[in-house]
Specification:
The protein is an all-alpha fold. 75% of the residues lie in helices and 0% in strands. The protein has helices spanning 2-34, 36-48, 57-64, 69-85, 89-113, 132-147, 150-173, 179-206, 218-241, 251-279. The longest helix is centred in the first third of the chain and has 33 residues, at 2-34. The protein is globular. It starts with a helix and ends in an 11-residue tail after the last helix.
Length: 290
């Protein structure tokens, strides 16, 4: 009875986390794409990304070459195969759907559903939110977290967080994207991943196979604390440049906006992967494979 109660609680936590991640993605898109203040902050960050970028240009370009449409296809196959090898075809299917769904969502939102109005002088660029490259990296990590075993999962979450941050930061250094683009991509992938984890747990619960409750542990705690610390840093830096205009912004203020965006990438990546690791179901073999 206690196990079932814990499992029900985990489903509710997963559902709430999914809703919050999705709401944050929508709020990010609304504020940074459709409001003037959001566009100004993102433009300041884009200008700040030029500072010292030449030191990492070559490395960023080399890293971004790994991301393409075939990468997504191969990644989905790998994620599905890991789940199937572990004898959990439902988890494999849910993870593959999460990877594919996140990437389709990003392309639909960026190219069809969201347009960027010209609210600041001279900025008539097409919408670039969410970042496709960051979505690929984030969704593949999310898929691997879902199908990995408990202890491997923690290592995948930590290493995956570093990979997502590296890819997202590479797009900033290369001036391919504004910070809001990469943050939105992480939130899109996390929404799909958390939704998939919640669906798997709910299905197991419905079949009378309740999993354990929400899992903590040092790795989850570390990710959540790192995420919250980075987001607090984002808040401080955002407050420092909140009223700054494009024409009167200093070099240091532009860099502060950029640093705040980079901190937001770290914060949301770490906190979302921490939550996903905590609510992801334990990978067990299906009866047909036992």
């Amino acid at each position: 009875m206690n196990e079932r109660r814990s499992a029900v609680g985990a489903v509710w936590v997963g559902a709430l986390a999914t809703i919050v991640a999705g709401a944050l993605a929508i709020a990010c898109a609304w504020f940074f794409v459709t409001t003037r203040r959001g566009q100004v902050l993102d433009e300041l960050a884009l200008r700040g990304s030029h500072i010292g970028a030449w030191r990492l240009d070559a490395q960023a370009a080399a890293l971004l070459q790994f991301v393409s449409v075939p990468t997504v296809a191969v990644g989905i196959v790998v994620v599905a195969l890991v789940g199937l090898v572990r004898g959990r075809w439902r988890d494999a299917l849910a993870a593959a759907v999460a990877v594919g769904g996140a990437n389709v969502t990003t392309q639909l939102v960026k190219n069809w559903l969201l347009s960027r109005p010209d609210l600041i002088s001279g900025d008539a660029a097409a919408n670039s939110l969410p970042s496709g490259h960051t979505t690929v990296a984030a969704s593949l990590v999310v898929g691997l977290v879902l199908v990995s075993g408990r202890y491997v999962r923690e290592a995948v979450a930590v290493l995956g967080a570093l990979a997502i941050i590296a890819f997202g930061y590479a797009t900033l250094v290369s001036q391919w994207h504004r910070p809001a683009d990469v943050v939105a991509a992480v939130l899109v992938a996390s929404t799909w991943g958390l939704g998939a984890a919640t669906a798997i747990r709910a299905a197991d619960l419905g079949r009378g196979e309740p999993d354990a409750g929400v899992r903590g542990g040092p790795v989850v705690t570390m990710l959540l604390l790192a995420g919250f610390a980075a987001l607090a840093t984002t808040g401080v830096l955002a407050a420092a440049v909140w009223g700054v205009g494009l024409t009167d912004a200093s070099r240091s203020q532009s860099f502060a906006a950029y640093a705040g965006g980079a901190a937001a990438l770290v914060g949301f990546t770490a906190s979302c992967l921490g939550l996903l690791t905590a609510v992801a179901p334990r990978v067990r073999r299906d009866p047909a494979h036992s």
